[in-house]
Write a structure and sequence with these properties.
The protein is of the alpha/beta class. The chain has one domain: Metal-dependent hydrolases (TIM Barrel, Alpha-Beta Barrel). Helices cover 39% and strands 12% of the residues. Strands 1, 2, 3, 4, 5 and 6 form a six-stranded parallel sheet that branches. A three-stranded parallel sheet has the order 7-8-9. Helix 10 packs across helix 11. It starts with 5 loop residues before the first strand and ends with a helix.
Length: 324
């Protein structure tokens, strides 16, 4: 059996250099964010940009759509790029756009990004009313079409609702357990157990605002957290969703937080009044840190097969299930 390496969330300032880094890290697949606040027409422009990347860097990357593309990437020593949204804004208020974004290549969609959306409640809202009437219908359509429900930025009740309502396993592509570090975005033990019971997946995040001791988080601390999370959920439900945001100017942070929904500044979790991207831990400055994760996970007691599961095989199996 092949051992795959998959990072199930990156949002980088894409360039040949970053594609080469991911290739050097032997990543067979990366789920990339192609929308934060964009509407449908703007997402189509982002897809056009990616199509140019696929042409310009075809020796490094190609557009992934099914698990077969992960196998192809592994064989050809390339990286399959899977599209996802960190918000539901690309479907606007039109459920027919679910199928259209899937046709564009999207395979993951968050029901909300921090705020209340037409579909669910984000983790920054004071009141969590759960998945909405439209949200229930959109989840049905996503299940039918083959678009994975992602609840990484969603509030607790909304996430429980999504797990219950979805006929297919959902994903939390980039977050950590709150028992380790109580960031707004990190998830409770009860929620993680429910996620595992429903055959869902958690992608452990390397973004410093989600880490204990932020940029100073140690490899040992992160891997010990992974071990406790495996005890809680079972090792088969854990992967990596690094949330790498390397190469961007700091102005992008402000755009991520504020989008077009506010005229005052929302600085977000862990940010100062001069928001900027936090420094990555020195053991995971980019995807080449997967080698450090491999060593660290073994050091805290994971067997080699379990390490390979966490670093990619579990996500590969999840992608396989998306086609059933």
């Amino acid at each position: 059996m092949n051992n795959y390496r998959i990072d199930n969330l990156q949002y980088c300032n894409w360039s040949k250099k970053i594609f080469q880094i991911n290739n050097e890290a032997k990543l067979d697949a990366v789920h990339v964010t192609i929308a934060y606040h964009e509407d449908f027409s703007e997402v189509k422009k982002n897809v056009d940009t990616w199509n140019k990347h696929f042409q310009d860097y075809k020796n490094l990357i190609f557009h992934g759509k099914t698990f077969k593309d992960i196998e192809k990437a592994h064989q050809e020593k390339k990286t399959a790029i899977f599209f996802g949204f960190q918000n539901c804004s690309p479907i606007e208020d039109d459920i027919s756009l679910v199928e259209k974004v899937h046709n564009l290549g999207a395979r993951f969609m968050q029901l909300t990004y921090n705020n209340q959306s037409l579909l669910a409640t984000g983790c920054y809202e004071k009141n969590d009313s759960g998945v909405t009437r439209m949200g229930k219908e959109v989840i049905k359509e996503m299940n039918k079409i083959g678009l994975v429900v992602d609840m990484s930025h969603s509030a607790e009740k909304s996430t429980f609702d999504a797990i219950k309502l979805s006929a297919k396993p959902i994903a939390i592509t980039h977050a950590n357990p709150s028992f380790w570090f109580a960031a707004k975005r990190n998830k409770s033990n009860e929620l993680l157990k429910a996620l595992a019971d429903s055959k869902g997946m958690l992608g452990l995040s390397l973004y410093p605002h989600h880490l204990k001791d932020t940029s100073n988080c140690t490899l040992e601390s992160f891997c010990e957290m992974a071990a406790k999370t495996a005890e809680l959920m079972g090792v088969k439900h854990i992967g990596i969703g690094s949330d790498l945001c390397i190469g961007h100017p700091n102005s992008v942070v402000e755009w991520m937080r504020n989008g077009t929904w506010t005229k005052v500044k929302d600085y977000g979790e862990g940010s100062s009044k001069n928001p900027n991207f936090p420094k990555q831990p020195n053991w995971f400055e980019d995807a080449r840190g997967f080698k450090n994760l491999e060593d660290g996970l073994k050091k805290v007691g994971f067997q080699e097969a379990e390490v390979n599961d966490i670093l990619g095989n579990n996500w590969y199996n999840f992608y396989r299930g998306m086609n059933n």
